[in-house]
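Weekly sync, protein design subgroup
Attendees: M.S., D.O., the rotation student, P.L. (late)

Item 1: inverse folding check
M.S. brought a backbone from last month's batch and wanted to see whether the design step gives back something sensible before we order anything. D.O. pointed out we never logged the input encoding, so this time it goes straight into the notes. Structure tokens as presented (250 positions):
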């Protein structure tokens, strides 16, 4: 872990890296991150919205040097940093109303084509407008973790859905999200885009960053970062991440 200690920017995925999917970060992780923020600049990038970041992540960070923390929700299509007035938006790649109309329409056509049957109970929104991203979640945006995890563990269902969506709306970026979701953004916006935006806005070369995430395999939502050349560390979950953070702060 000596090499990691020399990195200027530590970049984390959120779901299944810093916390379980859509679940609040635990107190131990919050304490470890607070200690890390005293030593390093830290970015967090995820498919979740800024509101989700607040619920799941920033609300748990009651201590720590927040001016060293940078948030890149919806796969880097927005950027927030901490200033005198609290969290301040630096940029937002908003989808137009027409973009969103086409995306929602494409989901409807895709459901019919693949034979997706609406669950009897939907938790939250089935298709969520996150302003910079549209996200489909099979049981809804607030579904219980066991239900989400069991639906498509090998991504086969979502990859079949994505193949249809790519034919219907090729002008957008379409990828698997968390355990049961599909994210749609403007073309070219993914976590690799987010890494390059970090380099641009934070003035930190990619060679001085490390990305820590759980989903770096082919088809995973962390996979695009590999193309940037950033050093990567793949983790198996939040407990594994804690061990890595401990090694950087001891």
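Designed sequence read out in the meeting:
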């Amino acid at each position: 872990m000596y090499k990691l200690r020399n990195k200027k920017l530590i970049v984390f995925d959120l779901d299944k890296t810093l916390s379980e999917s859509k679940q609040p970060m635990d107190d131990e992780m919050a304490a470890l991150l607070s200690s890390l923020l005293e030593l390093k600049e830290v970015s967090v990038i995820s498919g979740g919205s800024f509101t989700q970041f607040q619920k799941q992540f920033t609300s748990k960070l009651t201590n720590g040097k927040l001016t060293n923390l940078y948030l890149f929700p919806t796969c880097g299509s927005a950027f927030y940093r901490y200033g005198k007035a609290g969290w301040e938006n630096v940029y937002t790649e908003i989808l137009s109303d027409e973009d969103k109309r086409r995306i929602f329409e494409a989901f409807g056509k895709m459901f019919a084509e693949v034979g997706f049957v609406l669950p009897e109970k939907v938790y939250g929104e089935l298709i969520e407008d996150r302003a910079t991203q549209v996200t489909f979640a099979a049981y809804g945006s607030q579904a219980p973790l066991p239900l989400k995890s069991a639906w498509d563990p090998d991504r086969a269902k979502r990859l079949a859905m994505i193949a249809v969506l790519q034919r219907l709306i090729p002008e957008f970026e379409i990828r698997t999200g968390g355990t049961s979701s599909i994210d749609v953004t403007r073309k070219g916006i993914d976590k690799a885009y987010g890494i390059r935006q970090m380099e641009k806005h934070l003035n930190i070369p990619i060679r001085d960053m490390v990305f820590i995430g759980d989903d770096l395999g082919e088809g995973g939502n962390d996979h695009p970062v590999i193309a940037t050349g950033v050093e990567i560390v793949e983790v198996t979950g939040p407990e594994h991440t804690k061990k890595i953070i401990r090694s950087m702060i001891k």
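Discussion: The CA atoms of residues 150 and 179 lie 9 Å apart. The longest strand covers residues 86-92.
Action: P.L. to compare against the previous round before Friday.
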